[in-house]
Design goal:
Number of domains: 1
Radius of gyration: 17 Å
CATH class: Alpha Beta
Number of strands: 5
Strand order of the largest sheet: 2-1-5-4-3
CATH topology: Beta-Lactamase
Number of helices: 7
Helix content: 25-40%
Structural class: alpha+beta
């Protein structure tokens, strides 16, 4: 969705006050860089705390956006960046709706979080996105089950800029150690899957090309 945010960037992320926590994050960044697959660390607002070089490579072709760059806030990127679908294949069904479901859960759990509330207001400002959140999302959850919103273990399609990968899938792995979890952070790694491997998931129906870059409302079945 080509959402215009008025040129304001998100509020800068707070840095842990503890020197020990800061030192841990510095060392963890070194560890993250050794991982060959795209990996990122986010907080409960999906503000990005750390990424590695493989993550930067995956999204190197993404154009500028005032609030929705993948290295700033991954939720905003998925929902609001017009280029998101150029990397995140089957953008709406495989990425957008699961992220909206995750956001809904976070908003219910941290109702007074100003950052989450700001994202909720941005959703409300777009009629199609708001309809997807209020009407399409509940129907999608009923249709696919609560577990479909879970990231860990999910297999989702990507279009990697490196032709050695190209159109492929990734398995999202939540590998968050205790210390990161205590800091309020989550680590996710997109484990790229060799497209030559036999498929282990049901084939999805072919979707017609879309020109719109935002989520659409999931139609409610007729009674």
């Amino acid at each position: 969705m080509a959402y215009q945010a008025g040129g304001k960037r998100p509020t800068p992320r707070p840095v842990p006050e503890s020197r020990e926590a800061q030192a841990y994050l510095q060392d963890y960044a070194t560890l993250l860089e050794s991982v060959p697959f795209p990996s990122l660390v986010v907080d409960r607002r999906w503000d990005v705390v750390l990424t590695n070089g493989a993550f930067e490579t995956l999204f190197r072709g993404i154009g500028p956006h005032p609030t929705a760059m993948p290295g700033d806030n991954f939720l905003r990127f998925v929902l609001f960046h017009p280029d998101a679908g150029t990397v995140l294949r089957e953008h709406e069904s495989s990425w957008g709706l699961p992220m909206l479901a995750q956001f809904k859960c976070a908003l219910e759990r941290y109702a007074h979080d100003h950052g989450l509330q700001a994202i909720r207001r941005e959703i409300a400002q777009d009629p199609i996105m708001e309809a997807a959140f209020r009407q399409g999302l509940p129907h999608w959850i009923r249709a696919v089950g609560e577990g479909a919103a879970e990231h860990d273990g999910a297999i989702r399609p990507l279009l990697h800029p490196d032709p050695r990968w190209g159109a492929t899938d990734c398995r999202i792995v939540n590998d968050t150690p205790k210390t990161l979890r205590e800091l309020g952070y989550t680590r996710l790694t997109l484990v790229l899957r060799d497209s030559r491997r036999p498929a282990v998931t049901a084939r999805r129906p072919r979707r017609a090309p879309r020109t719109a870059t935002h989520l659409t409302v999931v139609p409610t079945p007729e009674p």
